[in-house]
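Risk register update: the risk that structure generation would not scale has been downgraded. Supporting records follow, first protein first.
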Amino acid sequence: MELGTIRWTDRLPPEVWQIVLSFTTFGTNRNCLSVSKLFHNLAARMLFSSLRIQFGSWRIALRCGPGKPSAEESFTNVCKPYDVLLRVINDPVFASYIKHVDILPFGRMVAESKIGTLTQAVSAMYNLRSFTWHNWNQVYMFPSSQLLETLASKCGHLREYKLPFQSLHMLHALQSMPATDIYLCRYDRGASEFEEELYDAHRESFVSLLEARRGSLAQLSLSSPGIRDCPTYILQDLTHLTICIDEERNIAVIFRHCTRLEALFLEITKDIPHTVFTAAIAEDPSALPLLTHLKVFLSPGCNRVDSWPIANFIRSKKKLRCLDYVDKFNSIMQQSRVLSAIKSLSTLEVLGLSFTQEILEPIEWTFLTRTIPRTVTALRLSVDYDDLGRHCEWIDLWASLPRLSFAHVADLRFHPIVGTRALAAAAKSLRLVGHHSYFREVYRTGDKVTFSKPWSPTKVKFRMAAEFGCDDWEWLMRDHRLQWILRDSVGH
């Protein structure tokens, strides 16, 4: 259709089309690249706003992932990043699209020229907002001093960085970065002795970095030792905090001083009795009233009797939109008090739950179905069980959520609660579905449901908000280790 000699698509301002494309899927945006110059430019800004650069093979380095990586894959992981970096260096328009960069450093022997190319490419990313250097059990590469200096001097819009704790040896560069969100990655869960030693080696630099960001630091991720030296004025200004607690005295500090928190990710290790945590929140259940995002990992879990303080704490959070509660050691009914509190949250949109059952009985499943608020748009459900009870309509849980757009299920893969196709058919508004390590976009034509190809293993392992199409969905799945399976219920 044309109006005069100008197509109607060209009569709308580009800003309007940008808003329209922000509500479409990744696959739709990719198709827009070949529609017209207008749509190519609009879609490219979204598709290439996030860039993942991989050196080496993480599947070889971490010895995980589905199947065995091929020689071709290993070769591609060395050559393809170099081509992308050259594109960034030689194409200023392409470089301007990039706002988020993830580096996957899994190459033991990476030529200095490629590290130099990475540094040169970063210097061209003048719109860069966040930079992540992934850190795992065994760090194969550290960011070079030249790279950190380049981030500090060339990326004036940088607001967030995630770096290995060892990067504190380049304190001057970190102090010069204009970031308000700092994530210094700890070594790994269960490596507390190494973590303490690492922290002691960089303690003075860590404190100096916090003092340099006084008045501007809003988001902080740190290990348990770090909170001991974190100044009170820093804690009082934080709006987002991620922390793993392995010392009893550190719990009370959070609830006493972090009064402005809007997002809290709290992991309680096995070294802390659950009674210490419940006692801390029992002192003032109304603490942290501004919370909109709460993620709690309990290890070990909290029994039904001691769950009252947790339930009261959750119930008092009238602004809470996103809740991810992980208690893998208790059943649905053992968590019934917490679930009843969740039911009372009128603003809740994103929910994650984990349970352990010997036999998953219909009566418990019915209770869970009636508990989950109908306002939920994203649901992560992990259930570990030995067997399923009979005569239960398991699918009713997802079918009862009219606004559900994203669902992820981790169940017994050889005896699943629900199949991917059945789930998508029941949840009429579903746009993305995950089953263990399989993620697929959902398409609908009338009553017909089809799926995209499954996400690649790398995309699953290093999940980015841009790929989910929603920051809250990435937040929901953050720090959850998924079980790798070779085939999902949709098939290939």
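Supporting record for the second protein:
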Amino acid sequence: MFDVLATTLTLPATWFKLLFALGTSFAIWRIGLTLIGLVCTYLHDRLASLLRLSWTVVCAYAALAATVYALALVDVPLLYDNGALIAQGFRNRAGQVVVVFALTLIAWNLVTLASRRMIPEAQQDAAFTRRSVRVQTLTGVIESSLRVVIVVLALISVLQALGINASALLAGVSVLGLAVGFGAQSLIKDVFTGFFILLEDQYGVGDVIAVNNGALNGTVERLNLRLTGLRALDGTLHIIPNGQILTVSVSSKDWARVVAAVDLAATTDPSAALQVLQTVTDALYQDPAWKHHFLAAPEQQGVTRLSPDSFTIRALMKVLPKSQYPVGREFNRRIQAALTEAGINTPAPAADPVPLSINPIEVRLLPATAHDLPLHLDKPEPTV
């Protein structure tokens, strides 16, 4: 038997049969466990465990029999005969359908596994880079596209296994698709817009964007050829068809800027205020805990706005993408403490105006009636 086994293993066809038998057995075992898992919610725990164990034993025996048949080990008659029966069953239409489903499950899991391996590799880079954004975005698009291709190929293979002429069916479907395409122009517009968004790297998963002149803004959590998923600050997820996106403002591409504007009362000494601003920005730039966020030294712009009761001083800080938010918050904390320590007050908020009615006040004089006249008491006679 070992001589026959050694001779059989030298043939490439034997390895193909062996891999096909083991892969198909594993896929069928996974499909069975998935179906059992759906049924087990209505069964007792012991019965569910017994079903899983029984299915595992049956699949293991079938895999062993198929392996013996693939290796042509006729010296093991029981397993060889059962393996021949299994192979004959797979040659029938029902068996071909099962094989198609098994191969589809294997391909589906391979796509998922490959995408999960690509995303952690992108996350090993810096916290936020264009490469990581690009990899995460394209990974999702490629994964969804490959799954669509897998499902279409599996459907065609099942139709062919059932004896249905798939080519004639596809010709009819193409004509139907052309007719549907004229009625689904918005969907086609979404797909084409999404294609150019990905091709030109306009934005990607993880970018902070504002859509249509700020009508919606947030972090991109999902992007494919048809739609964009935007997570707002309050947690709301906005689903936007790509065809409805006219303008996009990206706040996290290449670099960002902190606009450090401080409003002060008109009685404040501008020179003293600018000195405080200079001190705060320089200290923040030189702080080791924050220096890695900066791409350049802070730029002082002086007094940028004047009004009767206040004025504004401003500094600009060029930072890494998405660093403008933590750097801006830290600057606000430091500038408030520095202004308080220097005795510089910010302008008090203006009082809200009291709304007056636009209609004139109307006063009407009405004649008095007997009921409106006061009661007159008899006056006492004056004493002499």
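The domain at 195-250 is CATH 2.30.30.60 (SH3 type barrels.). On this basis the risk owner (M.S.) recommends closing the item.
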